[in-house]
Design a protein that fits this description.
Rossmann fold, 3-stranded parallel beta sheet, 9 helices, 7% strand, globular, binds P1-(5'-adenosyl)P5-(5'-thymidyl)pentaphosphate
Length: 195
């Protein structure tokens, strides 16, 4: 057993969520450099992970090159996260902080914005410039925003993506550093929506 596993210290799971084109990828890169600069073991991930077989099916759907039932595409997004689940847990337990560009909250927010039942989306997910991709439509993004509001809980920190990119970066650094420190002190891993 590694030293940090014995002490309860672990990496933090930092998830960046938001509407399409809200600046998540830009901030993921900046946050990665910031934490690396402070000497923290850290990796940057993103979902969907378009490199896997499942990810390629998702990518084709998002690019409007294939059609899928709304429930089926929801389950594919979920499967895409399950593909990486044990690797994710191992990384966190061994002390690596993960910056993840979209996670299960996107799964629920986007599918429920299409009209799927939000509770079904949560269960199916975890237990088992506009005009580009399929979802990048203003009216649909408004519905996603409403779904995100429903999902909001105490673990969330909200940053205004309308701010200049440097200001977003600074606020994110403060929030994330606090989170990384809490995890290093031994905050246990827990399941999403477990209660
Ligand atoms: N989806 C995803 C589901 O339906 N279910 C799921 O389970 C999951 C995981 C693909 C789609 O899949 C859906 C959600 C999506 O519709 P994606 O590939 O992550 O997900 O799609 P996007 O969010 O659109 O990713 P992008 O990389 O296109 O956008 P980002 O990362 O939000 O934005 P970014 O950083 O690339 O920035 C966009 C532009 O804005 C500028 C940048 O320079 C860039 O040009 N910018 C700013 N400009 C002004 N002020 C700022 N503060 C700025 N920050 C960035």
């Amino acid at each position: 057993m590694e030293n940090n596993q014995r002490s309860g210290s672990r990496g933090a799971l930092i998830v960046l969520e938001g509407l399409d084109r809200s600046g998540k990828t830009s901030q993921s890169c900046r946050l990665l450099s910031y934490l690396e600069g402070l000497g923290h073991p850290v990796e940057s991930w993103r979902f969907p992970d378009r490199n896997t077989g499942v990810g390629q099916m998702i990518s084709s759907y998002l690019a409007n090159k294939s059609e899928l039932d709304d429930h089926a595409i929801h389950l594919l997004f979920s499967a895409n996260r399950w593909e990486k689940r044990s690797l994710m847990e191992n990384k966190l337990r061994s002390g690596t902080t993960l910056i993840v560009d979209r996670y299960s909250f996107s799964g629920v927010a986007f599918s429920s914005a299409k009209g799927l039942d939000i509770e079904w989306c949560k269960k199916a997910a975890e237990r088992g410039g506009y005009g580009g991709e399929r979802y990048e439509q203003l009216e649909f993004q408004r519905k996603v925003a409403r779904s995100y509001q429903i999902l909001h809980d105490a673990s969330w920190k909200t940053i205004d993506a309308y701010l200049p990119i440097k200001d977003v970066e600074k606020q994110l650094q403060e929030v994330v550093l606090d989170c990384v420190t809490t995890c290093q002190k031994g905050k246990p891993l827990s399941q999403l929506w477990s209660s």
